[in-house]
């Protein structure tokens, strides 16, 4: 092997058509993660974008000493954005001098750089103010194929609460404690929402008492252009100023949280809560960048066309966020891309609920963020409320990231009837932990509506839901933890029972 071949094999030089040998645009710098390096093995430019993480990061520890969720939210937002504004200037100037497109973030002090060349990545990695460079892979929404056979036609109108709501005790909370989620704002980070669906329009925070609608601070589209150019373009368009759902997934999950059309279709756990949303996928395909952008919007919502670094208002933040998506290693995610976002949410007193995943029934199949970040999210597995058995597809613990026992609890997730675009209702094929997570979001909304002192107390809320769950054992032994143990890595602490959770806080228990 001659010197040219050796240099080529090491990536130190590359052949560029008729121009012969050119200095390689990628050096072996430990700041550059393997996904980015792999992107550049066959090309001289990253196809998507990269995250340039700055060395200086904000310290949010003082948030723990603040009393109210409002104080926590304001402190977290101000601290994060002030750090970004104080430190990103030189890097911004550098990127502008290179005439490349980029987007600034503050929830983690970083900048996403679009389609950088390997030469530019080298220059960025050499900077003292840059800690590392991470990839931003495409991530596809995954839903299991149900083993049940149901008609794909829209189901007829219901005449009362769905049985999945009855099973978790939601109707008992409504009847015995007169609580339906009043005063609580939930959020959906998903494929979007049909905002004017009959089961959702009244609960949309953008709908006033007089019926006028204002999407400012209540809706954000984090999809600015077509993500997967090999697929069809979104029917919602891009940078949509009106809530829209191009897949149906987000409309379905939101329906399980708050849905009720006032005409018998009672599909939501907390029908008097309000909702807001952020679209994080393009026809079911998202990226860590779109997920992080939605977390920024929820931490401090901003108006349409607003600047998140300057126009955010943490007073308008939701209380609870539903997240029915993941970002797996086989798609290129390292697994810690959204970790800073989750830490910021918790510091701000915002509860993040995450579907455990649909990779079961094997052990350690809670294999992707956000669910695998134990202690930062309420991870939810799926059971069939008709039999009380775990769904075959429900991901089992322990967390493949940190080894934590998971999920926290299990909720109904098999053939769940809810709202879908077109102002319809369907149960056909709607199975997944994506359907289970929203039950827990609604349950938490009922808890916080009943006891305002719980609002913003994340660990206490999760503990209450775990302690009030119906214990459920199994023959499955995962992660060295017997299925006879409570919690276990199949059902977690057990089956969601929100009536028991509320009862435990009441002087007149009526569960």
Radius of gyration: 23 Å
- The amount of helix comes to 25-40%
How large is the share of residues in beta strands?
A: 15-25%
Number of strand segments: 20
| CATH superfamily (homologous) name of the largest domain | Peptidase S8/S53 domain
Low-confidence parts: 1-24, 147-154
Structural class: alpha/beta
Number of helices: 13
Number of domains: 2
Q: Which CATH-level-2 architecture of the largest domain?
A: 3-Layer(aba) Sandwich
- As for the CATH topology of the largest domain, it is Rossmann fold
Q: Span between N and C termini? A: 78 Å
The major sheet is characterized as: 8 strands, mixed
* Name of the CATH class of the largest domain: Alpha Beta
**Shape descriptor:** globular
InterPro entries: Peptidase_S8/S53_dom, Peptidase_S8/S53_dom_sf, Peptidase_S8/S53_subtilisin, Peptidase_S8_Ser-AS, Peptidase_S8_subtilisin-rel
Family: Belongs to the peptidase S8 family.
Active site: 190 (charge relay system), 249 (charge relay system), 434 (charge relay system)
Domain Peptidase S8/S53: 181-494
Your description of this structure?
This protein has 511 residues and is an alpha/beta fold. It has two domains: 26-136, no CATH class; 160-474 and 481-503, Peptidase S8/S53 domain (Rossmann fold, 3-Layer(aba) Sandwich). The chain contains 13 helices and 20 strands. Strands 9, 10, 12, 14, 15, 16, 17 and 18 form an eight-stranded mixed beta sheet that branches. The chain has a four-stranded antiparallel beta sheet with strand order 4-5-3-6, sandwiched between helices. The longest helix is centred in the N-terminal third of the chain and has 19 residues, at 69-87. The N and C termini lie far apart (78 Å). 54% of the residues are buried.
């Amino acid at each position: 092997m001659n010197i040219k071949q050796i240099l080529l094999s090491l990536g130190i030089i590359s052949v560029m058509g008729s121009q012969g040998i050119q200095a390689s645009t990628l050096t072996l710098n430990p700041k550059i993660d393997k996904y980015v390096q792999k992107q550049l093995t066959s090309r001289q430019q990253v196809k998507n974008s990269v995250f340039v993480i700055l060395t200086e990061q904000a310290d949010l520890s003082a948030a723990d000493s603040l009393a109210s969720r409002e104080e926590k939210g304001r402190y977290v937002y101000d601290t994060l954005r002030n750090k970004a504004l104080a430190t990103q200037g030189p890097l911004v100037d550098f990127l502008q001098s290179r005439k490349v497109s980029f987007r600034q973030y503050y929830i983690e002090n970083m900048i996403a750089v679009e389609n950088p060349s390997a030469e530019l990545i080298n220059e960025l990695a050499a900077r003292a103010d840059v800690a590392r460079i991470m990839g931003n892979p495409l991530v596809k929404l995954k839903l299991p194929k149900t083993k049940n056979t149901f008609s794909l036609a829209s189901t007829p109108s219901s005449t009362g609460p769905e049985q999945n709501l009855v099973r978790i005790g939601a109707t008992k909370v409504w009847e015995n404690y007169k609580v339906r989620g009043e005063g609580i704002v939930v959020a959906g980070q998903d494929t979007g929402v049909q905002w004017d669906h009959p089961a959702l329009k009244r609960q949309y925070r953008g709908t006033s008492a007089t019926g006028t609608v204002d999407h400012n601070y209540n809706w954000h589209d984090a999809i600015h252009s077509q993500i997967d150019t090999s697929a069809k373009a979104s029917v919602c368009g891009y940078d949509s100023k009106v809530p829209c759902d191009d897949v149906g997934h987000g409309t379905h999950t939101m329906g399980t949280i708050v849905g009720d059309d006032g005409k018998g279709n009672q599909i939501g756990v907390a029908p008097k809560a309000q909702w807001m949303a952020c679209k994080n996928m393009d026809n079911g395909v998202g990226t860590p960048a779109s997920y992080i952008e939605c977390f920024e919007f929820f931490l401090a919502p901003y108006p349409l066309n607003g600047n998140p670094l300057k126009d955010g208002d943490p007073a308008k933040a939701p209380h609870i966020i539903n997240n029915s998506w993941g970002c797996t290693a086989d798609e290129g995610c390292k697994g810690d891309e959204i970790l800073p976002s989750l830490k910021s949410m918790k510091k701000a007193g915002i509860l993040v609920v995450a579907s455990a995943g649909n990779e079961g029934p094997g052990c350690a199949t809670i294999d992707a963020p956000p669910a695998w970040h134990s202690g930062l999210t309420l991870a939810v597995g799926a059971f069939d409320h008709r039999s009380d058995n775990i769904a075959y597809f429900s991901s089992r613990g322990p967390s493949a990231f940190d080894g934590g026992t998971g999920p926290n609890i299990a909720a109904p997730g098999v053939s769940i009837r809810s709202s879908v675009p077109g102002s319809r209702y369907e149960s056909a094929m709607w199975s997944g932990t994506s359907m289970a997570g929203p039950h827990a979001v609604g349950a938490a909304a009922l808890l916080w509506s009943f006891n305002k002192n719980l609002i913003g107390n994340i660990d206490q809320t999760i503990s209450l839901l775990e302690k009030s769950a119906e214990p459920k054992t199994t023959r499955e032994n995962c992660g060295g933890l017997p299925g006879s143990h409570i919690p276990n890595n199949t059902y977690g602490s057990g089956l969601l029972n929100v009536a028991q959770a509320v009862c435990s806080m009441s002087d007149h228990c009526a569960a």
